[in-house]
Amino acid sequence: MEIALNLVIFIASFVAIWFGSGLIIKSVDKISRKLRVSSFAISFFLLGILTSIPEISLSLAALSEGKPEIFVGSLIGGIIVIFFFIIPIFAVLGNGIKLTNKIESTKLIYAFIVLLTPLIAVMDKRITVTEGIFIIILAGVLFFTVEKNKGVLDGDNEMLHLKRYSLHDLLKILLGIGLIFGASNLIVDKTIYFGTLLSVPAFFISLIVLSLGTNIPEISLVFRAIKDKKKDVAFGNYLGSGTVNVVIFAVMTLMSGGEVLTVNNFWKTLVIAVVGFATFYHFTKSKHDISRQEGAILLLVYAVFLLVEGLMFL
């Protein structure tokens, strides 16, 4: 009975995140249409941050519980999920997709390098404060170089028109954030519970399961687009979300007050990610789209990731 109750709470918490994320995304979409900011700026900066609220809340909850390995697994797994599950599954189910909000090839390569930094940082099974600061600097440079000519830092755009939103939309955003934070605390508690019950490291559960759960906002955007029969993917949102994951990873390392130790050095995951990002870049560098067949290949990268990580704990 106790196991069933905890499972129900665990699942209900993800449903709460789904609902809360929906409130945030719909309200932000309404507000963003009234702001004079470029579409890339909205997707990379605004949606990138707000769709990462589950990761932020989960990481804070994990830190407060003294379980930093949970946020490490969730954030690293989340980056893999975004580029090798969410975008590819959209390509497969939507019979191909087009990536809007394109950026230059050199900046895209740099972005992928930034996304790989958490994996590089844990190669020695620990993340230091110095590494955290270095990662934040790299992510800051990425944001500056990408956004410099895209809107947020463009002086020609009047970014904030503070009267162009409704109190109703803001209240929905706050309600969504509240739901997500409450659900995230429950998810961390139940992750620890099931990890102990199944003799599986909480780190592994966070890497595989929580990384999917905290990306519910991004997943919901996919199904919303499929429902509306849209093939355009706001690439800035996914790139922004992945970058925010990197920043959260670094900030949580600093907030931990010292080194964060992990049970995995991720070298196999790093190899998979490098191959995956190289493949992703090859598919998109010239034609800026991903076909159904290419999406299936990228999904294979995710399948290999699951297989490799799963075999480690069998």
Describe the structure.
This protein has 314 residues and is mainly α. The protein has a single domain, classed as NCX, central ion-binding region (A middle domain of Talin 1, Up-down Bundle), CATH 1.20.1420.30. Helix content is 75%, strand content 4%. The strands form two sheets. The protein has a three-stranded mixed beta sheet with strand order 3-1-5. Helix 1 (2-34) runs antiparallel to helix 2 and helix 6 runs antiparallel to helix 10. The longest helix is centred in the N-terminal third of the chain and has 33 residues, at 2-34. The chain starts with a helix and ends with a helix.
Summarize the structure.
It is a multi-pass membrane protein. This protein has helices at residues 2-34, 39-50, 53-64, 68-93, 105-121, 129-147, 167-198, 202-213, 216-227, 235-255, 267-284, 292-312; strands at residues 97-100, 126-127, 232-234, 260-261, 289-290.
Features:
three-stranded mixed beta sheet; mainly alpha; 12 helices; two-stranded antiparallel ribbon; transmembrane helix; globular; A middle domain of Talin 1; 5 strands; 314 residues
User: How many runs of DSSP E, i.e. beta strands?
Assistant: 5
Strand content: under 5%
| CA-based gyration radius | 19 Å
Strand order of the largest sheet: 3-1-5
Low-confidence stretches: 155-160
Counting DSSP H or I runs of 4 or more residues, the number of helices is 12
Corresponding CATH architecture: Up-down Bundle
Overall mean pLDDT stands at: 81
Q: Determine the fraction of residues in helical runs and give it as a percent range.
A: over 70%
User: Could you say which structural class the secondary elements and strand pairing correspond to?
Assistant: mainly alpha
Basic shape = globular
The CATH C-level class name: Mainly Alpha
Number of domains: 1
